[in-house]
Each structure stands twice: as structure tokens, then as C-alpha cells.
Amino acid sequence: MPAATTTAAEARDQSLSAQLERDGFVVVRSILSPAQLSSLRAAAERTAALARSGAWPHVRTVGKQFPPWTWAPGVGIWGVQHLLNPALPDAPVFAASYFGDEILGVARQLLAPRRDGPGPDAAAAAAAAARDDELVMELYNLLVRPDGAGFELRWHRDDIAASATADEELARLREPAWHAQWNLALCDGDASLVVVPGSHARARTDAERAAPPYDPRLPGQLPVRLDAGDVVFYDNNILHCGRYDARRERLSLHGSVGHVAGGRLRARNVLQHGVGDWVDQCDFSSLDEKLRVRAEGMRARLVKLGRESGDVGFSLTE
Ligand SMILES: O=C(O)CCC(=O)C(=O)O
Questions:
Q1: Which residue has the higher pLDDT, 124 or 292?
Q2: Can you give the C-alpha Rg of the chain in angstroms?
Q3: Looking at the domain assignment, is residue 140 inside a domain?
């Protein structure tokens, strides 16, 4: 066998996977071109304004951390749901970014170790990258500055309840993640996501268990600082919280993509957000041929997952 050559992109992808496995998160700087960034930022501003006006009722409401959320007049928002819903005017702009090569190119590499293990060489890692026909459409939402006062999300893992014992936590954390999740900042100085590096791979310590839910100084905490165009990929079961500053603009594209092998476990994470109500009506006709085929396949795999999963319930409740 000839020695495998390592391209710069392959080496980068390997190192991203290694960082995600070690720390539970990895940051990629400036992933978008200036044109992509300005078009997405304009779409996000229009969408946030629509949601604040009540014309787009699919929002995350201030004071409530987990779904379901119900919009009501006068209620502040910290997120906008369903960016790929065809009823949203800017859905085509968001679809181009969700199904495009920039984010999915990294995501498919991060999903690779879930199949074959990290592998010692770059060629093996590239070959193990998730293929288009293994990817499943999941969530695409927007996290925004809350109106009025600041708002915090308590320390949590997205899909493991705080009441879990250490053994239950570990058993769940040792299962493959079967998804890649990211926050793509569209504004400079975004530090709302705060993580405890490495906590995706271990049970909570006694101090973490005993800490107040909104502890401002959990040992080891790290605010993930992003500027416009930077993206953080993170394991959604890393111990994390959200700190939302009402004085600072925040527009962060909050997405996830799944691997077909995730099955019912991922179905709950995705379908609890109500995506099943509109996924049949998605319209990807604005995408170019390559992205349209990819998007239709990913959508069809989500629909199949929904059909097979039945009533999925909610991961966490308040
Ligand atoms: O604001 C963030 O970046 C964190 C969001 C979060 O923790 C969540 O949606 O569960």
C-alpha cells in the first residue's frame, strides 16, 4: 500500500474530531465567506424582528428553558424555531446555509468516528466521513438577545435529566452521540454558551451535583467566545448553560444534523421541537441541484425516523 498523504483539510478535520472527543466542543473560526455572512445576518435580523412582532409564533419564550413553548403577546423571546419551515419568508436563505458544504463538511467529519473509530491516518478518517446518504435533517433554530432583562439557561445536559445517577449518566454518555450540533455566530462577541470542557465524557462531580442550577462560577466553566462567522460544534450532553445579555445583540444559528444510526434516541431530541408538523412541506427548489438532492434525502430520512418512532415525548421538562 502506498503511504497515505495528508492534505491540509484532512489534517484539520482529524484535529477537529480529536478536539471534540477530548473537550466535548471545538471552535472553527471564519467558516463563512463575507457574502454568506452578510446575507445570513440580514435574514436573521428580519426573522428575529418577525418573531418579536408575533408574526412568527414559533419561538422560545423567556422564563422557560425547555420545549414546548407558547408565544403570547408581551412575552419576550430568546430563540426562533424552525428556520427550515417553508412558511418562514427567509427559509431559502437558511436552507442554503444548513445544507451547504461549509457546515455539513465539518459535521460529516465529526460524525465519522461514530462509525469506524478515529483511525490513525488521515486517509482512513476521510474515508470514514459520514456520507450524504447517512445524514438526517434535524434542527435549525436561531438564538437571540432577550428583550428587557437578561436571561439564563441553567446548567444542563440536553438529553440527560439532572436527576440521573452517576451510573445512568455514564451509561448514556458512553453511547455514540449520532449527531453534530453547532452554534454559528452572526454577531461579534457572542459568549452566551458556557461549557465545562471534558464533562461530556464523565459523570458530574460532587461539586457539580451540589451546585445551584444557575451557579455563576461552576469550577472549570468556560464561556465559548465567538465572533461573526465563527462556529462551535459541541456534544449536546456536555454540561453547559446559556447566559443571555439583553444589552448585546445575539444572532446565533443553532443547528444539528444526525446520523441514520441514531434512530429513536435522536428522534426524541428532534421531534420534541415540533418539526414533524411541517417537515412534509419543505420546499428546497431554491437550492442548486447538488444541495437539493442532499436536502431531499436528509428530509426523507427524518420523515422515516418520525414514522418509525411514534410518540417520542420530551427529553427534559421544567
Ligand atoms: O445559548 C446557547 O448557546 C445554549 C443553548 C442551550 O443550551 C440549549 O438550547 O439547550
A1: 292
A2: 19
A3: yes
- Nearest-CA residue for ligand 1 atom 5 is 242
CA of 155 to the centre of ligand 1 (A): 10
158 in ligand 1 pocket by Cβ < 6 Å?
yes
- Residue 130 counted as domain residue: yes
Pure H helices in the chain: 8-23, 34-52, 91-99, 101-111, 113-116, 122-128, 166-173, 206-210, 263-271, 289-309
161-165: long-range contacts (C-beta < 8 A, 24 or more apart)?
A: 161/316, 162/213
Question: What element of type H or E holds 80?
Answer: strand 77-80
Asked if the model's pLDDT at residue 114 lies above 50, the reply is no
Q: Range of 169's domain?
A: 24-309
* Per-chain mean pLDDT for the chain: 89
pTM score of the predicted model: 0.90
- 65-79, 97-111, 126-140: which is most confident: 97-111
Q: In the predicted model, what is the mean pLDDT of residues 187-204? A: 98
Which residue type is seen at 90? Answer: D
Q: Which atom of ligand 1 lies nearest, measured to the CA of 193? A: 3
How would you class 26 by CB atoms within 10 Å of its CB: exposed for 0-12, middle for 13-18, buried for 19 or more?
buried
Q: What angle do CA 83, 270, 49 make, to 5 degrees?
A: 25
| CATH classification of the domain holding 164 | 2.60.120.620
Report the domain count for the chain. Answer: 1
How many whole angstroms separate alpha carbon 151 and alpha carbon 164? 25
Confidence category of residue 8, pLDDT binned at 50, 70, 90:
low
Indicate whether 2 belongs to any domain: no
In a domain, 11, yes or no: no
